[in-house]
Amino acid sequence: MSRIVFICLAAILTDALTWAQVNVEPNTALLNEGDRTELLCRYGRSINYCRIEIPGEQKVLNLSPEWSKTPGFTYFGAGLTAGQCGVSIERVKASNNGQVKCSLGVEGEELSGIIDLVVALRPQQPIIELLSRPNREGYFNEGTEFRARCSVRDGRPPANISWYIDNMPANKRTTLLNVISSTTDNVELSTSVQEIQWHLSPEDSNRKLVCRSHHQTDRESVPPQEAAYIINVRYAPVHQPDAAVYGLYLEHTAIVNITIRASPQPKIEWTIDGAIVGQGRTDGRYSAYEPQYLGNDEYNVTLAIAGLTLEDTTKIYNLRASNELGLTDYQVRISSSSKPPSSSLDVAAIVGIVVAVAVLVLVVLLIVFARATGRWCFGGKSIKTPTNETSDTESADIKATSTATATTTMGGVGVSAEGEETVNEQDGPQEQQQQQQKKAKKLPAFAAAILRRFNEKDSRKYKDNQESLNIVEGSVQEIPATNNAIDGNDNEPKAIIWQSTSPVWTFK
């Protein structure tokens, strides 16, 4: 009994708490200054009145669907009887930032709810502060650890920071975003701070480091704010592979141009067959010019050779470039021939070559298979077709057999010839099988197995054809025995022969 009473009391208490709770929509409203918004407080029963307090407004708003006494603020909701108390703000002001409080009158008591209204304030322009100092001329030496800090002050909410180098993500080591809050004139603002660091290389020289802020107030018409710093690096002449200059004309003045990177400007000297030619000097047929600045730390170095000879094209020209940070040696070769085509192949060319090789291998395998098995263009002549038609070779064989039979009927002399022919026909398949076995020994295992299977089929076909041929020969031998009469016209026996090339019976 006590358990039932306890359950009933718990249900009543839960129901009471549910009805006494005020729900708010939304819990937090993040808006820009000038935006329109609706804020709503709800209760499960009918309410008597609806009062709303908004930061920055001098009076409390007593709202109802029946009247609107404060310009810019109107009642929002389904009505007091539905338990809804809301406000529609036409234009949010920066001073409205804070907690909006709604008060609902319910059966002699007052319930309240809180909504956080955050009115975004655009932060100040980002600032880049150098933590590692350059020299007096504003340069960093190669290998120096570069450190910089970006600060975005007085934003609400705090701004995010991203780093770029020449409009590409920096992909360098950065610290976690640090947010520092401060209050000025009862207004809470936030400052975002982040650092970046890495070791400098020649590729970093003359590149633009950008700190960009991202904030709630960014729009298409108001792009993100950013700060930039140009990095200047001093480094020794950059090493590069041996250079080659083509297309020079013999017996003419040859101009050899080489491009090198260095900061500051390098001094150069050429070494030719042990002779040193400094910049701005001439030694015999060789003249070395002053380096010409091309921009982005690149310099054009020129050597002129008067009356180029074939022997000059066989020499190696050594170039040394040096500045305050070091020196680098280069080797240059020259040629009077045109520049050879590039040996690099793209993906399409490589795929085409692979496909062509695969097709070639397949064709070779098919040819080997056809030759080994006697198929296609390598196929042998069949002895007899299913329609009892024979080829030219078969006609010759039948003709020879018929002639031998006729000779036997006349004098018996052709018996020996017929015997020899029968022996040759018996020896034929044996020799053919031996030749096929020799070919099989030269073939791979899988080809030899295929060849043996086809040889077995050919042997069975040959035996069947031989039996048919013997039957035909027996029939031919019986015909002269019964018709051994002498024709009255020429007194000679006749042999009937079928010519395969033309379907006409002829007599001989």
UniProtKB/TrEMBL annotation:
Biased composition (Low complexity): 400-409, 430-439
UniProt keyword terms in alphabetical order: Cell adhesion, Disulfide bond, Glycoprotein, Membrane, Repeat, Signal, Transmembrane, Transmembrane helix
Cited SUPFAM superfamilies: Immunoglobulin
Region named Disordered: 381-439
Annotated compartments: Membrane
Primary localisation category: membrane
InterPro entries: CD80_C2-set (IPR013162), Ig-like_dom (IPR007110), Ig-like_dom_sf (IPR036179), Ig-like_fold (IPR013783), Nectin/Nectin-like (IPR051427)
Membrane spanning stretches: 347-369
Cleavable signal peptide: 1-20
Single GO cellular component term: adherens junction
Residue ranges the record marks as coiled coil: none
Descriptive protein name: Uncharacterized protein, isoform A
GO biological process: heterophilic cell-cell adhesion via plasma membrane cell adhesion molecules; homophilic cell adhesion via plasma membrane adhesion molecules
Classification of source organism: Eukaryota, Metazoa, Ecdysozoa, Arthropoda, Hexapoda
Domain Ig-like: 126-223
